[in-house]
Amino acid sequence: MSELIEKLEFFLADRGIYMLTLILFAVAVYGMIACGNYMKKLMCMNMMQVSIIFFFLTFGQKNGGTLPVAIDEVLSAEAYINPLPHALMLTAIVVSLGTTGVGLALLMRIKDIYGTIEEDRITGDGGKKQ
Amino acid sequence: MITESLRPALAVGTALLAALLILLFGNRIKPNLREAITLTAAAIMAGLIFSMVPEVLKGNVLISNLWTIADGLSLKLKTDGAGMVFACVAGGLWILTSIYSIGYVRGHHEKNQTGYFAAFAVCLASAIGIALSANLITFFIFYEMLTLATYPLVVHYRDEKAKFSGRKYLAYTLVSGQLFFVAIVFVYVKYGTCEFTPGGFIEPGSMGSGIMCILFFMMTIGGLVKAGVMPLHGWLPSAMVAPTPVSALLHAVAVVKAGVFCLLRVVCYVFGPESAYWCSGSTILCWLAAITVLLSSLVAMRQDNLKARLAFSTIGQLSYIVLGISLLSAYSIAGALFHIVAHAFLKITLFMCAGAIFVTTGLSEISAMRGLSKRMPVTCACFTAASLGIAGLPLMAGFVSKFNILEGALIMGKPFFMVVLVAAALLALTYLIPVVQIFFGRENSAATLNESHGHGGRAGIDAAPAMLIPLVITAVIAIILGCIPNAGLHLYDMAIMAAEEITGGGGVYLAK
Amino acid sequence: MNQIADHLPVLVILLPLCGTLLCPIISHFNINAGKRTVITALFLSIVCAVLQLIQVITTGEAIHYWLGGWAPPIGIEFVIDGLNGVVILLVAIISFTTALYSSPFEKLERIDRIHSAGYYSMLAFLSVGLLGLSSTGDAFNLYVFMEITAISGYGLIAVGEDKGPIASFRYLMTGTIGACMYLLGIGFLYAATGTLNMADLADRLTGLMDSPLIVMSAACLIVGFGIKMALFPLHGWQPAAHSYAHPAADPMIAGIMIKIPAYAMLRFFFCIFDEQSHVMQLFFNAIGVMAVIGILFGSLKALRYDTYNKILAYSSIGQVGYIAMGFAIGNFYGIIGAILHIVSHAFMKAGLFYTSGALKYKYGIHDINELGQVYRKMPVTSLTMVICALSMIGLPPFAGFFSKWYLALGAIEKGNYFYVAVLILSSLLGAIYFFRIMEKLFMGEKTAREKELPEKSRFELPWQMLLPLLTVVAAVILLGLFNAYIVNGVLKTTIWEVVLT
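Predict the joint structure of the above. Result:
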């Protein structure tokens, strides 16, 4: 039993986090396809972007590494985790913010034109204006 | 001797420039000025081409190496015997067809005249380009230009019938053009060159004979379709909906002749007689041509529409040329080349007569033309002369060429084809002479005498001078060329020169 | 002067960026000045692009520009060689002509200050994204520029016709998936090599090509770029987006927005990955299959529609397949064909969308059945349409023929006869739908009526619209006739040295 727990711990520590991000990614993509509401689609899109950000952050990690902030006592580079993915993901977060913003603006416009943001209602009547 | 010269390029450029000018200003300037552009360009072009004839006869080659058009290949024009024969015919006839066109479209009050003359000029530019191309890619560029420029002429009337013919025309020519394209690319990749070489650059045995045969037909299909060899002739009779000068151009000068010329280039300058024979492509071609010659004559007899009858006659006569080329002997190739000339003058006379009859009396069915000779004596006389020429009577242009082809068949030991050739000549008589008989028939049908018959029919004796003069000139030239094949431009000499170049100067190519 | 010359690669991008930022501010005071700022900025960008291309050609070496003076692999690097020099010039030209082309629409729609400023900002921003996408030498930077392109693209599609916002939203969804896949792909690459600089990546990847990380990465990149370039079967967003985008911006969206990701794909698959490796060969085969199906699918779909924009959009799916086919062929001529097709198709498709916009501007025509006899009133537009269409079919002597020529050359050299068959089949299908349009244009019944236009013009269209049309016609003809100079003078060395090493 303890062996099993050990294995599980190892798995979670080593691969598990990747599996979780993968599941998050898959759920998000599923949501984008399956949801009928454009707002939910947009939220799922955001989840997908978050899962990618997680993915980047996790592979920057390492055992025993500390935050990539210069601390007086710690001088060797090995003691820090890789800061680059963090920096990259800052940019990616900004980008995802931008996309979400555009998405929201589009939804407002769609709501203006069609009076709804449910996909089946918009396409159901042949895309006619209401 | 090979000299760099801009003359071949200028000849093509003049016509293209004329087309551009007509297109740009055609609707803003007076029709007379617009036609002046056409005629001036035609005269300049003819002058340029004729000025190169002495050089070619001396054995000099003029090359316009313009610029690199694709990696490793240049846009290149050059004069050689075969090309010059075709160029002289096309260039010379452009003047006459232009004059005739002016008479026709005005007499007939055609619409869209500007587009018509512009497309006409592009057609001629491409025909000259085809004649003078030095390599396959230049050839293909002009070949496709010709296809495109002919399309607006075919659909000139823009009604349902014209649309249908246009689609049919495009379907045939574009499909064959694409196959031709692939074959060119394949040859370029495999042999690393696209230059036309007398006697060909494809060695027999350089690939499997089956594959080479497929390649042979992929290359020749471009020519076969344009030359209307059966079973690929379907577009030609439908293209008859076009105005008559267009039909004359299509069937006598530019398009179909470009087709047979394409065949000549492919068979003799790309594959060469040896490879063409080795892969048995030329043998199949012989049979196709022989069948077409006979069948088309039989079909022609049943046509009551004069233009349709002439169309089928064209199909037959062109297959004559195809047969001459694919017999692969020096005589037959020279005969085929000269038949390009002879048939051009003869058939254009016939078409011009048909057009003149149509504009003057509004008649297009043969059965209604009884007694026409009283109304249009000169036209009918020219028609008769040209008919006899097509049939290959001695002292007419058709005789010289047909005799050469026959001689070729004899030398190659192909008695069957000799029979076919003679039979076809006789069949030509059977479908053209009845027309002449009707012209000179005694009874006058009411329609021919009705002077102001529809279509802006014109009162008075015979056709308008703008139409009459060109057709008389072509008929006279056809007779002169029959008596003295070398008259004027030495076209016969050039044909012989080309044929000897191809077969290696030996006069006869012997099948291994 | 010399100092400016040193900064050309960044100036090309910086100028439109300044335009983007300044336009709203200046528009606040004067609506025309804002517009003119953007147009001037885009024009100067062309000048810089030309200068840098000349520099690349004369020195024969690639320009490496380090942003902020930080040396790679730490800093971001712009690399300009013969290949992307041409692509950048293409983007700059089409951006400028499109900006010019847009101004009459503004008067037609009588839009207000904010909308005008927003429109021109987005147009310039799109240009920034595309220019950056083609000049950057850093994989993550490429992601940022890709998103810049996409975000401005979403905006320009949304301000279009009624269905614009929906089309734009769908594109937003799909496009974001594409961008995420790309990010995932470079994530794997970074995990495997620890660098994001393209040249560095290429160095460190030698010998790593079989590792599962790289395989995953390549797969993700295909999906990512495939979505952005609308490669079959990832094209779902494209027809609606191209049909309903703003008619003035459509030429840019349809013309270059799907080509530049294709160019980026080339960079990744040939410059970074080792294209000779077994894994990549398999991927190229996959791309080839996608390309072939896409070409046939696009051409067949285009036959079914009567809406001009829909026909053009589906034809783009087919034409992008040509480019992908060039990658799949993968030898010198295949790549040349692909690049020439990127350039020539950009001009042809932009030209066709210019005509589509012109028809909407003057007549409000969407459907090809209404085209009858329009050519009498709009000869230049019709001429553009005819020339671009003939070039799309691939008839000589226009540009489209020569890209097809090189593709066929490459395919036959490699022995892929199947690709050649697809090429000619697609040409013939193209002939059917384009001649159908031309038949309607020249032989149809007259149905359309001219709209009331805000200002009378001496020509068939205002000069701002005529100029782009004529530029495109000139480009299609010149690119066709003088393609060998581009191939030999600019592309050849780059391809042998950078792409096929």
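The first strand of chain B starts at residue 2 and ends at 4.
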